[in-house]
Amino acid sequence: MSSSGGIQIPSRLPLLLTHEGVLLPGSTTRFSVDSARNMQLVKSRLLKGTSLKSTMIGVIPNTKDPEHDSDELPSLHRCHGCACCSVFCSIGTAGLAVQVVGSNWPKPHYTLLITGLCRFRVSHLLRERPFPVAMVEQLDRLEQYTEGGQLDGELGELSQRFYQAAVQLVGMLDMSVPVVAKLRRLLDSLPRETLPDVLASMIRTSNLEKLQVLDAVDLEERFKKTLPMLTRQIEGLKLLQKTRKLRPDDDKRVLAMRKGGVFPGRQFSLEEDAEDEDGDDMAMLERKVKEAGMPEPALRVCLKELKRLKKMPQSMPEYALTRNYLELMVELPWSKSTTDCLDIRAARVLLDNDHYALEKLKRRVLEYLAVRQLKSALKGPILCFVGPPGVGKTSVGRSIARTLGREFHRIALGGVCDQSDIRGHRRTYVGSMPGRIINGLKMVGVNNPVFLLDEVDKLGKSLQGDPAAALLEVLDPEQNHSFTDHYLNVAFDLSQVLFIATANTTATIPPALLDRMEVLQVPGYTQEEKVEIAHRHLIPHQLEQHGLTPQQLQIPQDTTQEIISKYTREAGVRSLERKIGAICRAVAVKVAEGHKLSRTDSSSEPGALFTKPAEDSDMTAPPEMPIVIDQVALKDILGPQIFEMEVSERLTLPGVAIGLAWTPLGGEIMFVEASRMEGEGQLTLTGQLGDVMKESAHLAITWLRSNAKTYQLTNIAGCADPLEGNDIHLHFPAGAVTKDGPSAGVTIVTCLASLFSGRLVRSDVAMTGEITLRGLVLPVGGIKDKVLAAHRAGLKRIILPKRNEKDLEEIPSHIRAELDFVTASTLDEVLNAAFDGGFPAATVTHSQIASKL
């Protein structure tokens, strides 16, 4: 063993060859090891060794091109005699490996944290495989400087100048930075002879300059080589201070000093620019974590992760994952919120201006504002707007956010089939990220926004889980105050978020999820409401979108009604807006062509929408007049009418009745047709019917057969059993559309009763209701949508179950005044209302029926 006072190194040392940097005595540096010999050294020596001696290695800088084989020994003469060693020997640094970290990304490698002890010279090489081992001679004899106390002579003067320059450099830095204060204390505690190596490893120097310091075995020569480097950093920092006004509390001060060439940092470990920048960011990130206003559990987790991050090398894949996690935690609005606008009068005016009708939804929002005035700590309600497309569910949610003065965020759930979209991915997975709830909060920046969960009825389910089940915690007021995203793994308070879900139907929403929401039905609009919506919102919007003005185009209310009744048939207003857009485009073409736009007079031929003066006319062109769209112009632009009132035409033969159906798109009228012919008493059903509707048809046949004598129903041959010797074919038109549900029961009975009796059903009547085997009429749903569909079709009498009478209160009063409602509790009452003169009518003969036909 070679001895050097307090420092002793073995005479045989394994050698680590590196081209990344130069290790100086007294400094700590990270090295990435990926070559075959160096990795074998780590596996055989460092990972298996347990003693201090086994972790001591020699680090020799490789000055060759790093792209060449880094295993080739630099400047080592392969001889066994000492005489030739003075020419070919290399100087390195003996060091202790204090940390070894392995990784397979992007390729297998180890990251070593090595602390330099002293210089050595290679006497001769003992072996090269599997890793090099050499006999070494220790060079640093520090006891010769310390045994006599202070350095004297020229060396003492040189060391004093160096110390003063180091103190001046540190004094120009910000002492509030912990690493700078620690460096200042080191200057007073470290021996003067160690300062050249320590300072050379901290300031910005090239590898060539560090090699010169390493090769300076003589202490006086070492001071002389390092002092100009220190002076250069001081001058650079002075120049930087002259050109920039540095504030003591400026977070970018350390970055500015880096540009000046100074790299303060951890003791003995500020070799590289990336490490120093990481240290600055760590301090900034730690301050942000403490200022984020997190609850105590989340703060503890963040500080723990930050502590791990400080000890983690940047080359590890987990470093980026942990840093992304901490940055997300800092960006979340743990304590940031907006103040609600609680002026109920202003809110009512804003809602009325944004939306016409929808009184139930507006009333619920005003109720929430009123309660918020009385009680400030109020949990956000969980609302669910259910209605057909195009009725304004999404736009109402946006208006609610504007009324409350809150941020708005929409989450589209249609087709989502992975529960991780809601709850996030665990951080153990590659590419993990938070769920849409947490990501939405990050985007809006406050903890009390309005979240619109759009199309909640169209959630899917797959092997990745059920997102509807994941929403149970989100939409439960008793649980969402501690919602835990898998990515965060800490609780986040969602109780102040106002959740609004939208759906076209509740049939596909799981019962447990539906139970957590306050369902508000948004039925379709009446024709009068559509006219108002068109003239208040749709027409001005389309004029603006197409660059037109009311002085160029006018659409009267009569024309709007014509569009609604003959060109659209829907519960919402989307098709209506598209038709208005088509009119605007037609007018825009004429405006772009530069024609004078004017209405034709009564003598003009139909279809002449625009007129143009003759080219040879000397008359001055009349002033430009607005285009007024009438029925002639409407037909020119939109073509022939799409929907015609075919009700009376379809009811010219016995065996036809009109039912009312509910679909996710709104209410519709539905024709039921029946025919009979000689056969064996079979019943044929067509029209893509579901099982429930097929059962309703069998119920109707059974009830009519059991009451055939009462209602004078016969077959073709006049037999009392309508099915005897006859086959019945029951058809529901629009055969491409699947149909199901119990509400067609009364319609099927009426249709078959008309067929068996040979009497016509009234052409202005429609009906809905479920039947039983005993002839009772049971209530059904969707009454308002069905009534509006009948009103759009021009029907006047509607037969409803007796127990649905309460649902008529939801129908606008002017609609109720135009319709004749008949409520029935039995099929006998239904048949009496569906036929003129009641059913059966003994006074009506077959000849009278034939005369009507």
Structural class: alpha/beta
Would you report the number of β strands? 26
* Biggest sheet, spatial arrangement of strands: 3-5-6-7-8
Mean pLDDT: 82
Strand content: 15-25%
Q: How is the main sheet built?
A: 5 strands, mixed, barrel
Shape descriptor reads elongated
- Radius of gyration, whole Å: 44 Å
Number of helices: 30
Uncertain runs: 1-5, 65-70, 77-89, 246-274, 596-623, 842-853
How far the N terminus sits from the C terminus, by CA atoms, comes to 126 Å
Give the % helix: 25-40%
Main location: other
Domain Lon N-terminal: 13-234
Active site: 743, 786
GO biological process, one term: protein quality control for misfolded or incompletely synthesized proteins
Structural write-up:
With 853 residues, the chain is α/β, with parallel strands linked by helices. The chain is 39% helix and 17% strand. It has 30 helices and 26 strands. Strands 3-5-6-7-8 form a five-stranded mixed barrel. Strand 12 and strand 13 form a beta hairpin. The protein is elongated. The termini are far apart. This is Lon protease homolog 2, peroxisomal. One of its GO terms (cellular component) is peroxisomal matrix. Keywords: ATP-binding, Hydrolase, Nucleotide-binding, Peroxisome, Protease, Serine protease. A motif (Microbody targeting signal) lies at residues 851-853. InterPro entries: AAA+_ATPase, ATPase_AAA_core, Lon_bac/euk-typ, Lon_lid, Lon_proteolytic, Lon_Prtase, Lon_prtase_N, Lon_prtase_N_sf.
